[in-house]
Structures are given as C-alpha cells and as structure tokens.
Amino acid sequence: MNNWREWASVEFMTDLEGHLDDLARVVHECYLADQIAAGVAMGAKPTMVAWDALTADVQEANRAQVADISAKLDSLGYTVAPADAAGGAGAAFSEAEVEQLSVREHQRWVAQRTAAGWTYSPVRDDAARHHPCLVPWADLAEVEKDKDRATVRRIPPLLAAVGLQMVRPRKGKGGRGRTLR
C-alpha cells in the first residue's frame, strides 16, 4: 500500500468487521442511556432491554448503523486512521456536518426499516412493524431528529473504541482520500 490513507481504509474495514457486534452493542447501550435519561424505564418498550434480549431485527438495525459509518465519513471527505497516526485528537464534525449526516442517518434508517418490512403508522406497533418515524426528515419531530444528531455525534467515540479516528485529508495532498467502502 502506497500511503497511510490506503492502509487506514483497509484497516478500518478489518477493524469494523471484527468489532461490528461490539460497536453495535455500544450503540444500543448509548440508546438505553439516552432513553433512561429521558425517563423511559427498562422494559417499557421492546427496545428497552439488554442486547441479548433484543430481537434479531433490532440487533441487525444496530449493526447496519455501525456498518454505514464509512459511507457517512466519505460523504464529507473524511477518512479513518489509527488514533496515533495523524497526531492529536483527530477531526470533529461541525454543526453543519452533524445536521447533514443526521439527515443521511435518518434516510438510511428509513430505508433499512422499510426493507425489513416496516411501514408508517402514527402509532408504533413492533409486532405489526409499524413506526411513526418512517417519514421524511422535514416531517420528523425535533425530539426524533435529536436522536439522529446524537447518533452522528457518537461516531468519533465509537471509532476511538477500536483505536481509530476520523481525519480530513489536507487539501492539495491527494484530494478526498480513498473511499472507505
């Protein structure tokens, strides 16, 4: 491999695949913490349970969220490097980037849920696979948008959990860098 960007791309995918379940569990634990902080009790709804008690469908949704990290980063021109390769703490998202990626995350979630057989309903019914958030971003309640924003803001700590960081390649040094797919 000719440069660290190529190495990081391959290494990131290897690390991501090797840690997919671990990172998906962390995503779920963060969801639980957010919901508990909002006053939702464990067991109050089907997703308010430990990872091992989740349905396979919900576990797969968490894995899909983690698997999409590279596409999100690539869409903004970021790449991934070992935590010490770029020196320092790595890049951070601007608020505009958080918003852009939040819209993208919601669109990804809607597509993933729809492909899994879910449909829109004003009342959530997990057994019937109905969900009130299967709407365009513009129609989504602000509290639901905040969940997508929190998901995006957690990307750098998730990468750090496996010894990686996001970096934006310097302009004039090879453009956007290699795609992370």
Question: Any overview of this molecule?
Answer:
This protein has 181 residues and is mainly alpha-helical. The chain is built from 6 helices and 4 strands, in the order αααβαββααβ. Residues 1-14 and 172-181 have low confidence and may be disordered.
Provide a compact summary of the structure:
The protein has helices at residues 4-37, 56-67, 69-75, 95-115, 142-153, 155-161; strands at residues 79-82, 119-120, 130-131, 164-167. By secondary structure, it is mainly alpha-helical. The strands form two sheets. A two-stranded antiparallel ribbon has the order 1-4. Strands 2-3 form a two-stranded parallel ribbon.
Biggest beta-sheet profile? 2 strands, antiparallel
Rg, nearest Å: 17 Å
Low-confidence stretches at least 5 residues in length (pLDDT < 50)?
1-14, 172-181
Strand content: 5-15%
Judging from the principal axes of the Cα atoms, what is the shape? Answer: globular
Q: Count the strands?
A: 4
Please give the alpha-carbon distance between the first and last residues. 16 Å
The spatial strand order of the largest sheet comes to 1-4
- Count of DSSP helices? 6
**Which series of helices and strands comes N to C?**
HHHEHEEHHE
Structural class: mainly alpha
Average pLDDT across residues?
83
Percent in helix: 40-55%
